Amino acid sequence: MASSLPAALDEHIDEVDIHGVLSNERRRMTIEILGDEDGSLSARELSERIAERETGQQPPPRNIRQSAYVSLIQTHLPRLDELDIVEYDNGSKSVSLSSSAEQVSTFMESGSRLVLDEHYLLVAVTGLVGVLAAKAGVVDVALAGDFAILALLVVAGVAVIGARADDWPLVSRIRDR
């Protein structure tokens, strides 16, 4: 079965590996923190920032910093380096994002889904207000029907704009048959 990823992504990091990487909060934070940097960070600096995010404290408690550092060194950084998401030098303990990290960032952009959900909610509430206004006799029923059609067209338009056809499971299943 063919992958639903664009060809450029499919050549490098497997979608399953990307989801595996993003299933861990510390790996996600590592990618986000390094994405905000122009250069590299030491594993110690990175563990500090992760511990700060986890606790909301500055400086974070020593045990949380140590836990973050050990998990980075023993597990997360080697895995991210193996997948070529980060460049990790075990000797100097320096870490930076690799050029392949961009592939992962597209999967991390959940903010765009939230924006789409907000659009859907706005259109649904506006449509509901229109229907209730028609029921109460405030607006003409025909006008409310026209408004409902317009609302459905907006929802469909937002869905089409917000998602590439390759990302839709139904389209992928049809294409892969």
Summarize the structure.
Helix content is 68%, strand content 6%.
Provide structural commentary.
The protein has 177 residues and is mainly alpha-helical. The protein folds into 2 domains: 7-107, Arc Repressor Mutant, subunit A (Orthogonal Bundle); 110-176. 68% of the residues lie in helices and 6% in strands. The protein is built from 9 helices and 3 strands; from the N terminus they run αααβααββαααα. The protein has a 3-stranded antiparallel sheet. Helix 3 (25-35) crosses helix 4, helix 4 packs across helix 5 and helix 7 runs antiparallel to helix 8. It is elongated, with a radius of gyration of 23 Å.
Features:
177 residues; 3-stranded antiparallel beta sheet; elongated; mainly alpha; Arc Repressor Mutant, subunit A; 68% helix
What is the percentage of strand-forming residues? 5-15%
Secondary-structure element series = HHHEHHEEHHHH
The biggest sheet amounts to: 3 strands, antiparallel
Count of distinct structural domains: 2
Structural class: mainly alpha
Secondary structure elements and their pairing?
Blueprint: H1 7-10, H2 15-22, H3 25-35, E1 41-42, H4 43-55, H5 62-82, E2 86-89, E3 94-97, H6 101-108, H7 111-135, H8 141-162, H9 169-176
Antiparallel strand pairs: 1-3, 2-3
